[in-house]
Amino acid sequence: MHDGLPNEVSRWQHVEATAREMFRRYAFNEVRLPVLEPTALFVRSVGEATDIVSKEMYHFVDQGDEHVCLRPEGTAGAVRAYLQAGLTRSGGQRWFYIGPMFRRERPQKGRLRQFQQIGAECFGRADCQTDAEVLAMSWQLVQALGLQQLRLEINSLGCPACRPAYRQHLLNYLAQRRHTLCDTCITRIDSNPMRVLDCKEADCQQQLQDAPEMVNHLCQACDEHFNGVQQGLQTLDIPFVVNPRIVRGLDYYNRTAFEIITDQLGAQGTVLAGGRYDGLVESLGGPATPAIGFAAGLERLALLLPEMQAKSPDVCVIASGDAAVLQASMRHADALRQQGIATIHAGGGGMKRQFKIANREAVAYCLILGTDELTAEQVQLKDMNTGEQWALPLSEAIKRIHGN
Ligand SMILES: [Zn+2]
Ligand SMILES: [Zn+2]
């Protein structure tokens, strides 16, 4: 687990603020959901056969013999909350969340056991325009963060009407090549054949070059939907490529699946992933409800941003004189804060020590109060960048600071 210290948290806040603004523009509203959920929720939604559930969850039995776990992802809890609040007849919900997720993975570089995700879920809309908008929102988000060398990849996973026939087709193909594939692939042929296409082993990729792809086996409705999504993206001038190898592990995922990939760090990496999951609400006990969403790792997005420092205070108040001067300077600091100016007080005493504090904190201004200034009802305001200094009333000093 990882401590977020001020300089790093500044970057997180920048990512969060950018995301919040993008969600606002697309009229998505924030939800804040519990980090602890019944273990069964994830077994039923994420799936027992997945690595997340079988190996990576923090689950335990609490004092009341309840099987609970720290949420490994955000969608299952969002669906639970949507159902529990009785919103299935509300005609549509657009939600986003920002918060910690937990996976008890084996420690390795770049993996955190507590990490943060930014995600969005849209319930109640099945039309391809909605998919295009959710993809556009994702794209605009990573653009607004200034990430470089980005690529939006999309695929269609079909639906319960067309996927079984494709799956059989794929199984026949894989059966002929079984002996040439890696151990993971061989296990997946039996548990989840579509994920074989996703294997990162070069040998497997080589073997699977001409594997049948879902996009060529879509039913008419899925084909029209997928075309509609692509047309929507073209209308919105969002660049994309179709990658038929994007797969998802579970049956409730359908139609649109997408990832945003960056080559910015040398090795390519997924920064955001999502798609349609029209079957999930029903599989968790609700009525059939179309839904689409995505999630992105906040730390990972922050890592791709330029270096950023924690914000410096605007002003350091420096006092030189007796107790009356010190008290007046404390009131001045308070007055600055009430005017919205980030202010520290250097604590009085020696001027040299106080200026050292001001320099270390990298403030824009020092506001200096001595006996003469107190008598004259003025302060000295020093611009720390230019070295200029003015004697003026406190109210004028505040105006000048605001004018900066
Ligand atoms: Zn279909
Ligand atoms: Zn493989």
Q: Can you tell me about this structure?
A:
- It is elongated and about 90 Å long.
- It contains 15 helices and 16 strands.
- The relative contact order is 0.12.
- The chain folds into two domains: 243 residues, BirA Bifunctional Protein, domain 2 (2-Layer Sandwich), CATH 3.30.930; 89 residues, Anticodon-binding domain (Rossmann fold, 3-Layer(aba) Sandwich).
- Strands 1-5-6-11-10-9-7-8 form an eight-stranded mixed β-sheet. A five-stranded mixed β-sheet has the order 13-12-14-15-16, sandwiched between helices. A three-stranded antiparallel β-sheet has the order 2-4-3.
- Helix 5 runs parallel beside helix 9.
- The protein has 404 residues and is of the alpha+beta class.
- The longest helix is centred in the N-terminal third of the chain and has 20 residues.
- One zinc ion binds next to helix 9.
Short description:
The chain is an alpha+beta fold and 404 residues long.
How is the secondary structure organized here?
Elements: H1 6-25, E1 29-30, E2 36-38, H2 39-47, H3 51-56, E3 58-61, E4 67-70, H4 75-84, E5 93-102, E6 114-123, H5 128-144, E7 150-156, H6 163-177, H7 183-191, H8 202-207, H9 220-235, E8 241-242, E9 254-262, E10 269-276, H10 280-283, E11 291-297, H11 298-303, E12 315-320, H12 323-338, E13 343-345, H13 351-360, E14 365-370, H14 371-376, E15 379-383, E16 389-392, H15 394-403
Parallel strand pairs: 1-5, 7-8, 12-13, 12-14
Antiparallel strand pairs: 2-4, 3-4, 5-6, 6-11, 7-9, 9-10, 10-11, 14-15, 15-16
Bound molecules: zinc ion (ZN) (2 copies).
